[in-house]
TrEMBL record:
Taxonomic source organism: Plesiomonas shigelloides
Role, per record: DNA repair enzyme involved in the repair of deaminated bases. Selectively cleaves double-stranded DNA at the second phosphodiester bond 3' to a deoxyinosine leaving behind the intact lesion on the nicked DNA.
InterPro entries: Endonuclease-V (IPR007581)
GO terms for biological process, alphabetical: DNA repair
Gene Ontology molecular function, alphabetical: deoxyribonuclease V activity; magnesium ion binding; RNA endonuclease activity producing 5'-phosphomonoesters, hydrolytic mechanism; single-stranded RNA binding
Residues binding Mg(2+), per UniProt: D38, D106
Transmembrane regions: none
The encoding gene: nfi
Protein name per UniProt: Endonuclease V
Record's catalysed reaction(s): Endonucleolytic cleavage at apurinic or apyrimidinic sites to products with a 5'-phosphate
Length: 247
């Protein structure tokens, strides 16, 4: 994935071109393995760390995961985050022992000013059904939600349904769920609901979020998995991008 780093107008034009190829209808087969993806940053943003997990569905048991660290090639620019995050996600994807049947991505799908958040962009790149599961609002209008668990509101751009705002847990901010690629907004919501187990985040992105953030509690869990032969970490590194041994 080649990303120009200075011509931001060209990147926006590329987003519009790619957005036209995003499929907003269901093309999801049988789901036996479901993935979760998230991205974090190290060394003050100089290194992009991507994590992709594989869970057995419907049990949602962790099967495997991969982590990639690559040099960050683009600064933080609102609306262009997928170009910043997709290189590391692709590196992690290429390490996976198998492709998931469905992938939940921590970020926006089509709920984006140009219709191409990271979930949609990455779904196009790997041609897998994807769902955007964002922790905050970026784009689209919606009615206020009730405080109760399960409350939802449609997320619109004009007359186009992008997804749903859904409260997964009491006293927690809602999730902003949108179609990524090869899935409809309604199905995107239903799959996220099926993957929740009492936490704010659905299990695929909850695992990926923890792994990508390199928090010590998650690293202890992953070490236990690795010791049992249940999962492996493979760091995609370059000379200027060595893995932090403390992570």
């Amino acid at each position: 994935m080649k990303v120009p780093t200075t011509d931001y107008a060209a990147l926006r034009d590329e987003q519009r071109r790619l957005a036209a190829a995003v499929e907003r209808t269901d093309r999801v087969g049988s789901v036996h393995v479901i993935g979760g993806a998230d991205v974090g940053f190290e060394q003050g943003g100089a290194v992009t760390r991507a994590a992709i997990v594989l869970l057995r569905y419907p049990e949602l048991i962790l099967l495997d995961f991969r982590i990639a660290r690559v040099p960050t090639t683009l600064p933080y620019i609102p609306g262009l985050l997928s170009f910043r995050e997709c290189p590391a996600l692709l590196a992690a994807w290429q390490m996976l022992p198998q492709r998931p049947d469905l992938l939940l991505v921590d970020g926006q799908g089509i709920a984006h000013p140009r219709g191409l958040g990271v979930a949609s962009h990455f779904g196009l790149l790997v041609d897998v059904p994807t769902i955007g599961v964002a922790k905050s609002h970026l784009y689209g209008s919606y009615a206020p939600l009730a405080d109760s668990v399960g409350a939802s509101s449609m997320l619109w751009a004009g007359e186009s349904l992008l997804g749903y705002v859904w409260r997964s847990k009491v006293r927690c901010r809602p999730l902003f769920i949108s179609a990524g690629h090869r899935i409809s907004p309604d199905s995107a919501l239903q799959w996220v609901q099926r993957c929740c187990r009492g936490y704010r985040l659905p299990e695929p992105t909850r695992f990926a979020d923890g792994i990508a953030s390199a928090r010590p509690t998650w690293q202890a869990l992953l070490a236990a998995h690795a010791a049992n032969g249940e999962a492996k970490v493979e760091a995609k590194a370059v000379a200027s991008c060595a893995a932090d041994p403390s992570s």
